[in-house]
Specification:
about 425 residues; alpha/beta; Rossmann fold; 2 domains; 7-stranded mixed sheet; 6-stranded mixed sheet; 14 helices; about 20% strand; globular; BCAA_transport; Amino acid ABC transporter substrate-binding protein; signal; Peripla_BP_I; TAT_signal
Length: about 425
């Protein structure tokens, strides 16, 4: 069978100097041209700037994989020999252009493969660099559907696109009793958050729920204006797509102005320590979307025996409970590990090895503590793992998350409608 990547490989090798960041001729000597007795992975993520929290989460996920495989198994076994894993980081500084430069740096440094950024907008800048240089790349975090719709040949993602997560979490919330009649939807104006807001709006429309308004705004907006407009619409639910800082700003403004919908659904990160710390007394009862928490009932597999075993390892290593982004990042490392084993080539990898690795990744199925990972090979979710089930969670009074939907996966009953601010 001729795979799509075989045809594209022929094309990419023909463009030579047309690659804009690191020319193919420039990377031809990388990989197999030098002696190295370990697998070298580059990791591009935001270690400074507005998205540094998320970047640190992905770094913990990648590091926990590498440290565990090195300490417990001596590295990755290939042909009867074991090769340790080393990860070299480049800071995307929370901006797409810097992320693209960071990706080029990793390729110039001779990485065997790349672990991807935290945010979708940086990932969308990094993926073309991977294409131009035929470099295998797995994101353990980015969720924008734009990434997969582009049909990037060398990029994969372990976390389902937010167009699935946002839609399914919203649908689960809309099934709670009493069923809401109206929603107000807001989103920060950047790729991930807009895709989240659009997925939330679509779920409400599909359910026949009135969407009072859909509003996009910049990260640095005045949230009192956002909340005032929503308060005037008086919806049953407020649905919001954004990152942790925007969630904190939204609930703080809601408490300040006495805006009391029956519930807030936020994505991403309400079950992280950063949201709980930032939101403080306003955090409890928030609904969130996720695909993994430590208490989820999933079997283990490669490297970690269960979700709780992984959570315990994270707690021991970093004194923090992992969220699904950290888990998805560790799963990305595990998938590379299993693909390297199947490839059977000792490091450093040649370009032919890297091209062969893409075919292996397209067919791979890995059972992990995070869930089963397998990548789509056609359609709008090309190279995205859409197998992991979406979970609706709600924070309790102590800030801990419980799974409250969908009904077949729930481990607790939702506290809904949520108490008004002056009743907490």
């Amino acid at each position: 069978m001729t795979r799509k990547h075989d045809d594209r490989r022929t094309f990419l090798k023909g463009v030579g100097g047309a690659a804009t960041a690191v020319g193919l001729a420039g990377c031809a000597g990388l990989g197999g041209g030098s002696e190295r007795d370990y697998f070298k992975l580059g990791a591009v993520t935001s270690l400074s700037g507005e998205l540094r929290f998320g970047g640190e989460v992905t770094q913990r996920g990648y590091d926990l994989w590498a440290d565990t495989i090195n300490e417990e198994q001596g590295g990755i076994e290939v042909g009867g020999e074991t090769y340790e894993v080393e990860i070299e980081y480049a800071d995307a500084q929370s901006t797409p252009s810097t992320g693209a430069d960071a990706a080029s740096q990793m390729i110039n440094d001779g990485a065997d493969a790349i672990l991807g950024p935290y945010s979708s907008n940086v990932t969308l800048a990094v993926c073309p660099i991977m294409e131009q240089n035929s470099m295998p790349h797995i994101s353990g975090s980015a969720e924008s559907p734009q990434i997969w719709q582009e049909g990037f040949e060398y990029s994969f993602g372990t976390i389902p696109t937010v167009s699935i997560i946002g839609n399914e979490a919203t649908s689960a919330l809309l099934n709670l009793e009493p069923q809401p009649e109206s929603v107000y939807v807001t989103a920060v104006n950047e790729p991930f958050s807009v895709a989240t807001g659009e997925a939330m709006r679509a779920a409400a429309e599909e359910a026949g729920i009135t969407v009072e308004n859909y509003e996009e705004f910049p990260r640095d907006t005045d949230y009192t204006n956002v909340v005032s407009a929503a308060q005037n619409a008086d919806p049953d639910l407020h649905l919001h797509g954004g990152h942790i800082g925007s969630h904190v700003d939204l609930v703080n403004a809601a408490e300040q102005l006495g805006y009391n919908p029956d519930g807030f659904l936020m994505h991403y990160g309400v079950n992280t320590g950063s949201y709980r710390d930032g939101a403080g007394d306003q955090g409890p009862y928030t609904f969130g979307a996720t695909v993994w928490i430590p208490g989820v009932d999933r079997s283990g597999g490669v490297l970690f025996d269960s979700p709780q075993a992984y959570a315990d390892a994270s707690q021991s290593a970093y004194d923090t409970a992992p969220d699904y982004t950290q888990a998805g990042s560790t799963a990305a490392g595990i998938v590379f590990q299993e693909a390297f084993k199947e490839l059977g080539s000792a490091p450093p990898l040649t370009q032919d090895d890297k091209d062969e690795l893409i075919g292996i990744l397209e067919e791979i199925e890995v059972n992990t503590f995070y869930g089963d990972v397998a990548f789509e090979t056609e359609g709008e979710y090309y190279h995205n793992n859409i197998n992991t089930q979406t979970l609706l969670v709600q924070l309790g009074e102590d800030g801990s998350p419980s799974i409250v939907g969908p009904e077949e996966s729930a481990t607790a009953e939702a506290n809904y409608p949520v108490p008004a601010w002056d009743e907490r």
